[in-house]
Amino acid sequence: MGTLKQITLYIALFSFISPSSAFSLNNCTISTPLKDIQPKVLCYKMGFFRIPSIPGNTHILDISFNAFTQIQIGDFNHLSNLQDLNISHNKISQIQEGAFDSLSNLYSLNLASNRLQAISRGMLHGLTNLLVLRLDNNYIKDIEETAFSTLHNLKVLNLTKNQLHYVEKIKPVLASPHLEELYIGSNHLNAFKSYEMSTNPLALKILDFSNNPFATFQLTDNIFQFLNHLDLSYCGQNGTMTWNVTEKTFFASVKSLYFMDVHMSVQNAANVLQSFQNLLNKIRLNGNAELNRTDLLLNACSPVLQVLRLKTNKIKHLNEHMFDLCSNLTEIDLGDNEISNIPPGMFRGFTQLKTLRLQINKFTRITNFFQNLFTLEFIDLSRNSIKTLNCDVFANLTQLKMLYLYSNKISIIESCSFKDLKSLEVLRLGTNNLLRIGDAFRNGPQSLLELQLSFNKLSKIEKYTFRNMSQLKYLHLQDNQISEIESYAFGGLKNLSSLFLSSNKISAKTLTKHQDVFSGMPNLENLGLDANIILFTDDQLKFPPFKDLKHLTVLSLHSQRRGIGQIPSNLLQGLSSLEMFYVGNTNLAHLNPDTFKFSPQLWFLDLSKNALSEDHSIPAELFHPISRLTKLLISRTQLRSLNFLLNANLSRLSTLKATGNEIDLINKTLIQSLPRLEVLDLQKNTFTCDCDNEFFIDWAKNSNSTQVVYLNKYMCSYPSSLRGMSLSAFNTESCTLNIDFICFLCSSIVVFLTLLSSFVWHFLRFQVVYAYYLFLAFLYDNKKKQSGSTFQYDAFISYNAQDEPWVMEELIPKLEGEQSWRLCLHHRDFEPGRPIIDNIVDGIYSSRKTICLITKNYLKSNWCSSEVQVASFRLFDEQKDVLILVFLEDIPTHQLSPYHRMRKLVKKRTYLRWPKPGEDTKIFWQKLKLALEAKEGHKSDLLIP
Ligand SMILES: *[C@@H]1O[C@H](CO)[C@@H](O)[C@H](O)[C@H]1NC(C)=O
Ligand SMILES: *[C@@H]1O[C@H](CO)[C@@H](O)[C@H](O)[C@H]1NC(C)=O
Ligand SMILES: *[C@@H]1O[C@H](CO)[C@@H](O)[C@H](O)[C@H]1NC(C)=O
Ligand SMILES: *[C@@H]1O[C@H](CO)[C@@H](O)[C@H](O)[C@H]1NC(C)=O
Ligand SMILES: *[C@@H]1O[C@H](CO)[C@@H](O)[C@H](O)[C@H]1NC(C)=O
């Protein structure tokens, strides 16, 4: 047995990572379980420069932010199911014609932010179902005439930020007959003359011409019959655009115009606006501070205009009559100006106005600005400097639903301010100077659904503060200084579903001093108490604070600034609906086994960033009451093993995240105790690369029900000789003595003997000579053994003449030059005049190892040659590990089949593979060095420790 085991010598450590349908992809994650109908694979920001191996059924692939420089034919051959492909933010300057041929199911292709300079004829060939194509942010100067001719279904094309310069160059894209959205902003287009693009009607609905310095804009044919939206923002940077639209009706279908920050004279702007015949519903005139607004509005406004945006126009004073012509507006945006007052009667004739945006202005107080605007539904007054709110400011705004007053300087609110707001649903008062709430909300607004009071200076919540807000669902009180909460502080909030109290000064005392702190809100589902100073010292609480929260599903207690101390065994009492519990980052060192006995519905538990290093920090019994647990996060908790899960009965656990711990072993029993595991993330642990982890490594590579996230990044920490090696590269086949191998060996010997005898029969002469040399070799070897002599060379190199350049340029400089091995090469070290076979026997026997450099040529000519015969004779005869196989090129296993023995060798053992062009060779040389260093005739201490 021992001898046989000795024969299962290692050769090398590296094994091919084969494309498979397994879950663990190198540097990619599958974001939806493989069971999903549309698997989505995410490989962004990973430094890839070629398409990684990805399951063939992938529908959505994101390989953006990598280092691709080109796309070649064949890259996507096995991905014909792909529907959505994002290769943006790479360095692609070349796409081979036909590279996308297999992607006939693709409907969205994102090539934005690359280095393409031209779109050539066959580049987009095959994308017959493509709907959306992004080519923005490249250096495209040219598009070949027929480049788009097979894109019959293209609807959206983004060519923003390229170098097209001339409108004629855009013409080829119109070969896609259904193109509806075309974005060609920022292309340095100097002139638009419609006949250069087309004289026939186009299907375009959206056209973005923004950021082009048009000196001329000439429309002489009715090509934009279906155009709905036109973007001319930031155009005419030259200040002298000539606008010539020969028929008034050419823009008759345009309903929406973006006309922001244009650089043109008032007269020019007026000309442009007049072309739209006052048919616009929506216009953006943002950032046109230089134009005379009275004139601009005169031309822009019309009774059909509904949306007017005048953001960022440096407007200081509003003129009472400026909007007289657009009195049917439903939305007006005056944000980011310098307005401090609204003249009374300004909106006098407005009967439809629903949205009024006045954010980022200079208001310090509001008077009766909104008088008569009964239709208003949304007022945005955020980011001003309003100090007080008078009682009648919002009088009669009975339809108002949303009122934004955040980021002002309000220090007091009177309850009368909101008294008429019978429909108010959202009130945002965050980031003000409120010190107390007092009576402000005692009477409502009763219809309010969301009240935001975060980032103020509140310190205390008094009894029944929100008594009459029975509709309220969301209450934001985070980032205040609340340290005291009276009993029934939230009493009356019958429908409250979320209460946010994070980042306050709430302590354990705040929660437990009074009996009914969280009483009176029976429907609360989400309670945020994170980032406070809750520190428990007792194992048992007198008044469990959450006892009345029967419907609470989410409780956050993470990130307590002084640590949580412990979780009292009855802290969660009453939380019979609790589903998610966050208690990470709280310096928790121990969990009481009874913690969850009140919360049987829990399925999500976050314990990350704690200090659970002790053996019994997490007792298995902790999990017994929560058998529904499906997601467990225990990253960065100083864990040394996951064995506490063995008896936890977590039969439903599907996601386990335990990164950044000190886990070294994962055994079979553990994996078997988690039958529903779908995602396992164990990055940044300290794995042991030995046979104890054999099951885990094989399972992680091959499981098709569990995705082991970024398996290829898991590193060996032990034994020290393998530190830094990838766990998945550890060769587990050396761990088991394989019955197959024994059979192979026996049959090989039988076959060999049979062959030998028949050879001896048939080719007597040759074989006798050969046998003679083998005998010589045997004698030679014996002599060596007796004399215990040392070897003359470290390695004999067997290779095909065609691979000589590699030997000369790569191997010799590295092995002889840097690593100082003595090599035996036939062209150099063979004694001239001696018979070649003598030289070979001599060479092999005076070298400790024989390195075979295997290529297809080598297999054809040298395999079965005398060199290998002699070396393998030595292998089998001495049971020494002398043969090192180095593959200089990928030879698929099926191509090895004619070389039966080689194939078996390769299947049974690992071997070294010369990296593909572009890959790092350091590891290769490192492994070769290890292989050369290993003592022959001994078990490999690398593989069979
Ligand atoms: C995976 O990513 C790491 C770092 O992001 C990188 O060093 C490694 O080369 C990548 N592996 C592959 C196969 O691209
Ligand atoms: C078009 O490209 C620009 C520039 O990259 C980008 O900002 C914009 O969102 C894109 N629009 C669409 C519809 O893809
Ligand atoms: C500005 O207009 C002049 C002709 O009037 C033209 O030569 C020049 O290229 C234009 N500049 C830009 C940035 O478009
Ligand atoms: C507008 O273009 C048409 C056709 O090229 C031309 O006949 C006409 O004179 C131009 N009008 C102006 C004002 O430039
Ligand atoms: C803007 O135009 C109006 C009408 O043409 C004129 O009365 C007003 O003085 C102009 N304003 C400025 C600042 O030029």
UniProtKB/TrEMBL annotation:
Q: Which GO terms describe its cellular component?
A: plasma membrane
Q: Where is the signal peptide?
A: 1-22
Keyword tags:
Glycoprotein, Immunity, Inflammatory response, Innate immunity, Leucine-rich repeat, Membrane, Receptor, Repeat, Signal, Transmembrane, Transmembrane helix
Span-the-membrane segments of this chain are 763-780
Molecular-function GO terms, alphabetical: signaling receptor activity
For this chain's UniProt record, which GO biological process terms are given? inflammatory response; innate immune response; pattern recognition receptor signaling pathway; response to bacterium
Under the heading InterPro entries, the entry gives: Cys-rich_flank_reg_C, Leu-rich_rpt, Leu-rich_rpt_typical-subtyp, LRR_dom_sf, TIR_dom, Toll_tir_struct_dom_sf
Q: How does it sit in the membrane?
A: Single-pass type I membrane protein
Q: Does the keyword Ion transport apply?
A: no
Question: Where in the cell does this protein reside?
Answer: Membrane
What domain of life is recorded for the organism?
Answer: Eukaryota
Which family does the entry's similarity section mention? Belongs to the Toll-like receptor family.
| Annotated protein name in UniProt | Toll-like receptor 22
